[in-house]
Amino acid sequence: MGRRIADVSAPARLAAAGEGLGQDELALAARNHGLPLEALRYDVTPPGLHYTLTHYDIPHVPDEAGWRLTVGGRVRHPLDLTLARLRTYPEVTTRVTLECAGNGRALLTPRPVSQPWLVEAVGTADWTGVPLRTLLREAGVESGAVDVVFTGADHGVERGVEQDYRRSLPLGVATGDDPEVLVAHTMNGAPLPPQHGSPLRLVVPGWYGMAQVKWLRDITVLDAPFTGFQQSVAYRLRQTPEETGEPVTLIAPRALLVPPGFPDFMSRTRVVAPGSVTLTGRAWSGRAPVTAVEVSTDDGRSWRPAALEPDHGHRWAWRRWSFVWPAVPGDHVLSARAHDASGNAQPTEQPWNRGGFANNLVQRVPVFCPDVV
Amino acid sequence: MGRRIADVSAPARLAAAGEGLGQDELALAARNHGLPLEALRYDVTPPGLHYTLTHYDIPHVPDEAGWRLTVGGRVRHPLDLTLARLRTYPEVTTRVTLECAGNGRALLTPRPVSQPWLVEAVGTADWTGVPLRTLLREAGVESGAVDVVFTGADHGVERGVEQDYRRSLPLGVATGDDPEVLVAHTMNGAPLPPQHGSPLRLVVPGWYGMAQVKWLRDITVLDAPFTGFQQSVAYRLRQTPEETGEPVTLIAPRALLVPPGFPDFMSRTRVVAPGSVTLTGRAWSGRAPVTAVEVSTDDGRSWRPAALEPDHGHRWAWRRWSFVWPAVPGDHVLSARAHDASGNAQPTEQPWNRGGFANNLVQRVPVFCPDVV
Fold it and tell me: What value does the mean pLDDT take over residues B207-211?
């Protein structure tokens, strides 16, 4: 027996106690990137600062005129659309905060070995495209349909399975209007950059990043639940490898601070002058609107309410918050904690699952406030 | 004695044998990012894919109309320029490949603990701006001047030293025309993105990234050598901490491959179908024009010449190369090796210095070629 393609993959594993990050985790961290946290100050994230996570390679699309989006499966009128044709449909622009399902993974104990995010895998953009429900209505979904599968052009191997990146949504979500799913061709008023799915991607407001299929080339309606790798093997909440697990879906609430003052290069510890410091940040939840943000300046021992700005009509985007902190000399740990209208709140004790998904433990920002600056 | 600002910094150190990456290194890797290597295919790197390295925070510039570039020190006519005024000077556009001085650091044994790059800290852009020599001529450099110091708006602490990011060039380089140093306001035809120095940065073709001062706000001519932290403490080639060391200056030659085939998600091992495979990549050197690229498909045991494209008039940008590889089933390690007109070539044995600078060891790309695909 020769070596097989599956043999290039190692099984999923947890890091041993005290095990530092390996070069496999570093290779992902060096390719992909998070939002530098000071960029939380922008309502809309400049594209090069928005987080990115590419499972395989960014596909090469030398000829956009040749790109096709096909819509098929359990439909009466299969579609085969050029980009030019797609742009003739009425378009919608929605401001959406996207977050990677694995955000927070590298802070977990034990640490699942995968893309090692701390807390920064987030970004907000204005996405413009055609509502998915418009395309599905035109294609005419047949009775008995249950799932809609989205296929990207990115191709690779993952835990022994060679695949195009492929995810599904339940039919009700795919055809719904709250949120309204988009087939997006435009990011912040410009064509999608390569790393954000050029020329087409799915945008599913409120859902974690794994649902936002990039380099979208096919939509297939199924009359049975989709059981592909990214749906049934990856992106499940499990405590043991044997469990079926619950699917990862909507973004759990999270608040992050713009780290105040200035940093040390290596430790990223912040130095803040004593006095009145206005802390600001963002909060979001895909599960329900954010209703409150609390701030702690004593490492979570006490919490006080922050001022939360209105959503300015952007239900699916993060909201700005602020809090005035009378900083006194010494060492402090700052945190913020989001609550949403469904009663979800960020935990102050670590939740854990084998994939390191949907982890929304409160952020800790160590700050040193000197006597004099 | 209270705790001081310097106490937020740890001393420079080397990782112990077998020590994995720490959360401090990860925090830098998650903020900053390299070029996903498949993006070597673009002549000009899209901005969000170009490597970035920010020592402290990306500065907040809410009011570009208020930005000033001052030129002072040993000059007869100090300048105080708005962006609008700067844009009235004749401008120059140069295509430049930039590379971080620390590229390759995380592959070193022992590993210097800092921003942990593998090989991907590179990118190429068309930079437009005002030649620095134009501004220095207008300011009138006085006799006795030796160094020109550039100050950015990014502020932080590094190994105990609170500082604005500040670097110098020898007067001859600053006023030279080969390379012609630019005060750049435009990247690929658009205003600089925040992470690339908005609204102004220095571009010094052929020099490593530490010279390319971002968020540039002051230029000061000195009549004595500049001895600031980033000149005299950081960015020196040293074998021991006690040495003065040699300064890091021009980019050493390097070639990289576009990894062929498709990857495994976690190991990044490539899977390539057997048959004739055209390998492509880029090669560059800041020391002299690239004259040759060799390719090895047997982990460096033998080397054969690649076809090197002309520079198309872009002396300071990477050049494309290609090589046809008859891939046969099995495991392979691919490498490329650049040579330049001054006789510099990439080493096949690891060079080492305490900062992990100017490391241009040949890249190794593990590839699995299955019997059937």
Answer: 98
